[in-house]
Design brief:
About 35% of the residues lie in helices and about 15% in strands. By secondary structure, the chain is an alpha/beta fold.
Length: about 230
């Protein structure tokens, strides 16, 4: 089974390659997903069984200032990957974000209302729309961070199911190589960003959303019932 991984140099892509040797992970020079014909040719030549599409522009602060690259990568690039899968038996797995949910109450199931709170999440939701054109598709909504929290402060009043990439990557790989289709939430336990942070960095200080200039959702925690049924 050949897996083609986009975004192999990213946080998740790096971890996936530790777990699964033999993954085909071209860099941008080898495969620029913004180039429609190049993507089509690469997929035709390599004929992967699965594409795990993790390439994305993710820094919302930068995206809000200049959205061009996010439009090109997150929307057009994803559409190019989806288009290359049409008419084949390729399974397309797309890494999306918990930020596509409204973020005001938490406990979101895969069928709940979608209302992104920032431009990054809107571009990821647009990518989801493209992926749905592929019959054998899986959209993974998740949130993860580096193996250790790297910032001096963390929000004590913001909730999510965010977990460390070394915990999330094996779950995504399992879902990728499995049979589940449609949409799947993957994450850790519901907790504040502060509680998440101090698990591996006890020196982190508490911060409050009220002290931040960012418009950030209060609770994007996930209902993981579907994942738990798949994982059994």
């Amino acid at each position: 089974m050949q897996i083609l991984l986009t975004g192999g140099s990213g946080l998740l892509g790096t971890e996936i390659q530790k777990l699964c040797t033999g993954v085909l992970a071209p860099d941008r020079a080898e495969l620029d997903i913004r180039n429609t014909s190049a993507v089509a040719a690469y997929v035709t030549d390599m004929a992967p069984d699965i594409i795990l599409h993790a390439a994305a522009v993710t820094n919302n602060r930068d995206i809000e200032v200049d959205p061009v690259e996010a439009l090109d990568v997150n929307i057009k690039g994803t559409a190019n990957v989806a288009r290359a899968c049409l008419g084949t038996n390729i399974r397309l797995v797309y890494v999306s974000t918990d930020y596509v949910y409204k973020g005001d109450r938490g406990g979101y199931a895969e069928t709940d209302e979608l209302l992104p709170s920032n431009l990054y999440a809107w571009t990821k939701l647009a990518g989801e729309a493209a992926v749905r054109a592929v019959p054998n598709h899986l959209i993974v909504r998740t949130s993860f961070g580096a193996a250790q929290f790297e910032y001096p402060e963390a929000f004590a009043d913001k909730w999510s199911s965010k977990d460390y990439v070394d915990r999330i990557a094996p779950k995504i790989l399992e879902a990728t190589t499995g049979n589940v289709t449609g949409v799947l939430n993957i994450g850790g336990p519901r907790r504040t960003i502060y509680d998440y942070a101090v698990e591996r960095n006890p020196d982190v200080n508490e911060a409050s959303l009220s002290d931040s200039s960012l418009d950030s959702p209060v609770d994007t925690s996930l209902n993981l019932d579907k994942w738990e049924s798949v994982d059994d």
